[in-house]
Predict the 3D structure of the following.
Amino acid sequence: MDASAGGDRRRARHRPGRSLRAVLHAALYRRLAADDDRAAYWVRHVRLGIALTEVVAVAVGGYVLLTPGSAVRTGTLLALAGVAIVVSPLLLLLPLAKMVRDPRGVLLLYGWSLAVTGLVTVASRVDGGAASPMFALLFLALAFMAIAYPPWGVVAMGSVMTGSYLIGVAGADVDSSATFIGAVMATCTVLCAMASANQWEAHDRQTLLLRASEALAATDPLTGCLNRRAFLDRLDRAAGAAGSGEAWVVCLVDLDGFKGVNDRGGHAAGDAVLRSVTAALSGVVRETDTVARLGGDEFAVLAEATPGEGEGLAARVRDAVAGVGADLGVTASVGVTALRPGDEGHAVLGRADQAMYRSKGAGGNRVTAVAG
């Protein structure tokens, strides 16, 4: 047995509370939105819930006025309906789009469900307990949760609703009829949780597929680094940042002697060189820098650096290519330029391209810098 694994299990047994909290946290908490489109979906969902609450509250008011009862019962139920009508729109005052991006944002949904459960429980109790039809609103709340909440959140809230019905609504009058309704509500909770799990699984699968498609669209299939389009997108963003005081440089790298590799060893040998060059470039830049293959034997590096630092980076790039291409006669002509406020990606590449051709015209295996 692995000693470290055994130690981990022993520590887990000594700290069951922590493990339980971790399990509950993973089950009940999750970030609802990771992008603007998903955040907008949740904002629409909350608005729909508010509209539904308003309609139901008005319907409850109509039911109360059309059914006989004491003045206390009528006044209490109308007051509860009024609270729902007045309070629920106040949710729109919250920063909903920001809240749903936080893992704790789901607490808004749980709190909302608990408030609805409390109102329905009190209203049903005032209206006659188990004999009141208003407990049916809990099923409506369960259905609303099924299309939004995380599955274990549905289980938790559905359990609270079932317990609220049996204890708060039926109370001492629990009989076979109330028990049957409680069992139906528990079964409905399970079904709603299954529907929620399917919905979240479909969303997660769609998100993974979208990210995979975006990665494929931005990646050079041979070398695995970024392609020209993705590099230009990052270059345009860096140019925008340059206007706010950040310093960026671009190194344009063109391989010397690469045609000879293809002529002697064929495209397989050329492809091997391109992959080796990509690895070499990635090895001399920081994790925050960008390496891209623009096409053919042309590469580019985008780095946050001053012009002086950029020339040092370009020299390291040249040396790295010379190292992996020493046996094949492959070196690099490098042009480097700094980004300036108001630059566009194509203009920056144009300046770097001019500098690179000066390096190549001077014999290759050298660095030429042009002012930004």
